[in-house]
Amino acid sequence: MKEVLIKLLKNKITLISIIVLVMFILMIAFAPLIAPYDPSSQSSQKYTGPSNEHIFGTDMYGRDVFSRVIFGTRISLVIGICSVVIGGTIGSILGVLAGYYGGWLDQVIMRITDFMMSFPSVLIGVIVLVILGQGAYKVTIAIGLAFIPRFIRLTRGDTLAIKDQEYIEAIKALGASTPRIIIKHIFPNILNSIIVMSSLWVASGIRLEAALSFLGLGAQPPTPSWGLMLKEGMNAILFTGWLSFFPGLMIFISIMSVNLIGDGLRDILDPKKK
Amino acid sequence: MLIIITTVVFFTLRIIPGGPAEAVLGNQATAEAIKSFNEEWGLNQPLYAQYLRYIIGLLHGDLGRSFVNGSKITPMIIRALPYSILLSVAATIISILIGLPIGIISAIDTKAKLFWDNISRILALIGISMPDFYFGILLIILFSLNLHWFPMHGAGEWYEPIEIIKRIIMPATTLGFASSASIMRITRSSILEVLTQDYIRTAHSKGLNETTVLWKHALKNALIPIISIIGVNMSLILGNVIVIEIIFSRPGIGKLLIGSVMDRDYTVIQSTIIIFAFFITFINLLTDIAYAYVNPRIRLK
């Protein structure tokens, strides 16, 4: 763990991305302290551009966009991360089972996976949200569901690659039970690629959350979510372009930093898959 | 495949709590109102009967009527579809126009290897990290609101082709830009890989000149992974069309879908999702055919 961290910090680009991500995490933790205004307090100054008082300007209700962007970090990053945790956990378990047992279980799981993979994630998200209804929690579930097949495919492939290796055979011959083989010997060996994959999919999670909220299917107003703020900015684009500029910039920066960290992690943990 | 999708969509939409009657009439609706609504739409019949009726209608090209305003769905979709198809195709063309040349140049220009390495890396990073909806908004701010080059809304009418073209440039660029990065990367890596193969050396030693080797021998073989990535991109583009149509308020199948979701118009939701599924399946089929065309080895199987 320590080695990985040291290697990560040696790469300049990864280091900068980590600093950016740490800043985002600080924003999540200390949003009320950093934000100069209450994100939902309204004022008479509407649609102002960036100024000394409101560095990102104000929106259609005169709310401070900077404060809303900071509080929005909570929604967007937390949904991005949680959806990957949901999708990653379920997907990895199913993928390992499919890869290890093979046979009809594998057939069924892979058919469903291929079926879902042929749909773009946005469409899966929309369909799930039509069924569940709208809201921040539901978006997390919808994105998590869209990610499951991706993780199944990855972990199944990795499991297939190692399950016939000699050391697994040896443990089997020693009489280890199947759950023990999976948990103690297969899982640790594929964990690295799961971590790399997860870090890259967090970026997709942030982006999908923003897209679905932008469509009005995710977090509902007055929640400060970046996607929702983009939508509000889009509605007001004839008055001011700034309103959508900053939330979008935050989405861009956060996705980019998570992607770069993911790339850095991959170079260290999983050098084969470059 | 399509039958599975239709079945899944049909039954999952039926299990939504409240049902269509409540969605349309509001939650204060009286029991009688709900009952007569259900009778009018045949919702009191058993599920399998409703399902059969829907499938038979579907096979006849009749998608039923909208719960909310009662208009027929098939004409709604036929009106919206050309806009979405045009947009997806234009976006794919733009992504190829950006991705393929840069990919080829970066692979064969060995003198400036480092430069092209960096260009391809930066473009790929921006392509992955820039959400298309944000890119679209930036284009609107720059080209519509400040430079006034392109109108920001709508798609234009079919009898004015110039308007159509003017209004499709920004959305298609937005969609195409995101996928151009992957096309560029694949083109570059597959050409580089093909160039190290033995038959390229043979072609060189036969005395063929550089251009012939590249265009006749290398590119054709490098094309296989490129075509598959274009296929993958096209189905991604189809998903993103939903968001882009909302941003540029273009008529189209994605706008129809989101509009019907907002109105909780289940029959329209169901039909648009099925149409999407149909096109995704169709694109996958096209990709397979194109694959077999450039790679005769697959055809033999």
Describe the protein in words.
- The complex is a heterodimer of chains A (274) and B (301).
- Helix content of chain A is 76%, strand content 0%.
- Chain A has 274 residues and is an all-alpha fold.
- In chain A, α3 runs antiparallel to α8, α3 packs parallel to α10 and α8 runs parallel beside α9.
- The model of chain A has no long low-confidence stretch (mean pLDDT 83).
- Helices cover 79% and strands 0% of the residues of chain B.
- Chain B is elongated, with a radius of gyration of 24 Å.
- At the A-B interface, α5, α8, α9 and α10 of A face α1, α6, α7, α10 and α11 of B.
Task: Write a short abstract of this structure.
The complex is a heterodimer of chains A (274) and B (301). By secondary structure, chain A is mainly alpha-helical.
Distance between the termini of chain B: 22 Å
Shape of chain B: elongated
Largest interface: pair, residues per side: A-B, 36 and 41 residues
> What is the count of β-strands of chain A?
0
Beta fraction of chain A: under 5%
Strand-and-helix sequence of chain B, N→C? HHHHHHHHHHHHH
How many helical stretches of chain B?
Answer: 13
- Secondary structure: number of strands of chain B: 0
Question: Rg of chain A to the nearest angstrom?
Answer: 22 Å
Low-confidence stretches of chain B: none
> Can you tell me the overall shape of chain A?
elongated
